[in-house]
Amino acid sequence: MTENDPIALFTEWLSAAEAQGIEQPDAMTLATASADGRPSARMVLLRGVDQQGFRFYTNRRSRKADELRANPHAALLLHWQPLGQQVRIEGPVAPLPDAVSDHYFATRPYESRLGAWASDQSQVIESREALLARFDEARQQFADGDVPRPPHWGGYLLAPVAIEFWRHGDHRLHDRQLYTRAADGSWSSQLLAP
Questions:
Q1: Cα(31)–Cα(158) distance, rounded to whole angstroms?
Q2: Candidates 167, 172, 176, 181; catalytic one
Q3: Are 50 and 7 spatial neighbours (Cβ–Cβ below 8 Å)?
Q4: Residue 38 a catalytic site member
Q5: Span 119-172, pLDDT tens digits
Q6: What CATH fold (topology level) applies to the domain 2-98+153-192?
Q7: pTM of the entire structure?
C-alpha cells in the first residue's frame, strides 16, 4: 500500500511522469556539501530505485565524489513541473559494489563508456580539443567495442531517511507530505504546511 511506503509512492509518481512524456523524468538535482559544510548541487540521472534507496553513477574523482567521501550525506530533488509535483530525498550515501557498477556500465552506450575513460570529471582541462583527442584515444584503445568500467567510475546509493512529496495547490497552499524512516526501517508520515 503506497500510503505507508514512500518508495512505492515515488515509483508511482515517476511512472506518471514517464507516461506524461516528460523529458528526462529521471533527471534530479544532487546536493552535496564539503567537510566544512559548503554546499554544491548539480543534475544527475536516477539509475535505479528500490527499498534500499536511490542509485546514481559518476566519476569517483569528481567534485561530488570528493564531497561524498568527506561528508557522506546528500539530498536529491526531482521536479516534474507539468505535473506540479516534486520529491525531496535526504540520506546517507555509500559507494555501490564494483559488480553493480560493472553491470550498469556495460549497459551504457558505447560512446558514453568511452567518455568515462576520456574525461577527468571536474578537473581543469587545456581545451575542448584536448578532451576530444582523449576521446579519440579511448576509441582507438577500445575499437573492438569491449569497454571495461574505469576503476575511477562507479555508482552510489542514497539510503533515504526522509522523503517529502510536494504537490502544487491553488493559492500556494501546496500539499506536502514528509515520510521519515525510523531505525527499524519503518516509515512514519506527517503533513507539512506549505
A1: 12
A2: 172
A3: yes
A4: no
A5: 988 889 999 999 999 999 999 999 998 999 999 999 999 999 999 999 999 988
A6: Pnp Oxidase; Chain A (2.30.110)
A7: 0.93
